[in-house]
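Section 3.1: Structural characterization of target chains.
Under the original work plan, the team committed to producing a structural model for every single-chain target entering the pipeline before any wet-lab resources were allocated. The record below documents one such target. The sequence was received from the expression subgroup and is listed exactly as submitted; it comprises 151 residues.
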Amino acid sequence: MKAFERILAATDFSTVSKPALDEAERVAKEFGARLVILHAYQVPAVASLAQASPGVYEDFLRAVQTDGEKRLDVLVAHARARGIDARGLLRDGFADEQILDAAAKEQADLIVMGTHGRRGASRLLLGSVASRVVGRAPCPVMTLRAAPAAA
């Protein structure tokens, strides 16, 4: 099996992403691979916010970016503490498009991401970032489904 050199781990900072990030770290450590942890966000252009007093939308956008950077820094620090060559990447746009673009630009050998495991109507209505990435990825994609919540 070819050793992985560059791994892209996508996160939305949710509990769904945690098992995938843990696995990405494990694989990166095993193969001595570089780990890029990606968070893609999309801020809706809410008309009322954009038309509010000058700078409100820009301040909101900056706050979203700052929060994303801080949260990525924590994940990168965790990976580095485990001896992994890691860095964060914050991108603005649709998650699937940003994951695919980053995978190509980073020349990723593997994409690792979590999935909600939706089925039926909820998947039909909400779509699946993971399925869109799997269908168009330039490299293998490992998806990990979050454990179901305890009843």
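Residues 121-126 have pLDDT under 50 and may be disordered.
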